[in-house]
Amino acid sequence: MTPLPSSSSLLTLHALRLKGMGEPPTIARRFALDVADVAEHLLDFEAYGWVQHFEFAGSGGWTLTDAGRVENERQLAVELVESGAGAEVARAHADFLPLNSLFQSACTDWQIRGLPGSPMAANDHTDFRWDDRVLDSLGSLGRRIGPLCAELSGRLARFAGYQDRYAAAMARVEGGERTWVDGVGLDSCHAVWFELHEDLLATLGIQRGEEPGVERR
């Protein structure tokens, strides 16, 4: 079965949902879109009230408005019906949830290394056995999302690439670039994992914190 491709318009809006904020080159890069097409879509979306541009302290970018978020979910819902992949995406999300709990625990262990009298002490990464255990867990989780991602991308083309991006980030980590675990502004393990989670939630119209078995705080 050939996976359903998404329009460049949908992918532009969805890339902004996944990235949170960005200028046309960043947004275009997410799904290998033409930058000029993305810039044109953004101007159209601005006229519809779906996006807005922010600038602050010399930086900024486009972001979704509440209306844009609703429109993104509407488009994804229509696409999901067209693909006939609703059951597969729901199953993938259910399979993802326990892996997500393990990933969150691993990220916490990467950032925090409790000590006597200081259970929330920052991990100074001097305990190599501790860090190696965490990295083993992160590597295992990257391999475990492989079948899930393959099933998703086999039905909806826009899900392609997550496992390869995660593996690329892990390769950087294993090469000694430890910021690629959770570094900001990088296509890090955490960034890729977050996008996959957000992609599943958006596709199914589920809000963060409202997933089955997830306790709201």
Structure description:
Strand 1 and strand 2 form a beta hairpin. Helix 7 (162-174) packs antiparallel against helix 8. Helix content is 61%, strand content 6%. It has a two-stranded antiparallel ribbon with strand order 1-2. It folds into two domains: 8-79, Winged helix-like DNA-binding domain superfamily/Winged helix DNA-binding domain (Arc Repressor Mutant, subunit A, Orthogonal Bundle), CATH 1.10.10; 86-204, no CATH class. With 217 residues, it is mostly helical.
List keywords for this structure.
2 domains; Arc Repressor Mutant, subunit A; 2 strands; 8 helices; 217 residues; two-stranded antiparallel ribbon; 61% helix; mainly alpha
Q: What percent strand? A: 5-15%
Describe the sheet with the most strands. Answer: 2 strands, antiparallel
Main-sheet strand order equals: 1-2
**Structural domains: how many:** 2
Described by the principal axes of the CA atoms, the overall outline is globular
Mean residue pLDDT: 94
Taking all Cα atoms into account, the compactness measure Rg is 18 Å
Question: What is the N-to-C succession of helices and strands?
Answer: HHHEEHHHHH
- Helical content stands at 55-70%
| Strand segment count | 2
Which spans of ≥5 residues are poorly predicted at pLDDT below 50? none
Distance between the termini: 41 Å
Structural class: mainly alpha
Number of helices: 8
Structure summary:
This protein is mostly helical and 217 residues long. Helices cover 61% and strands 6% of the residues. The chain contains eight helices and two strands; from the N terminus they run H-H-H-E-E-H-H-H-H-H.
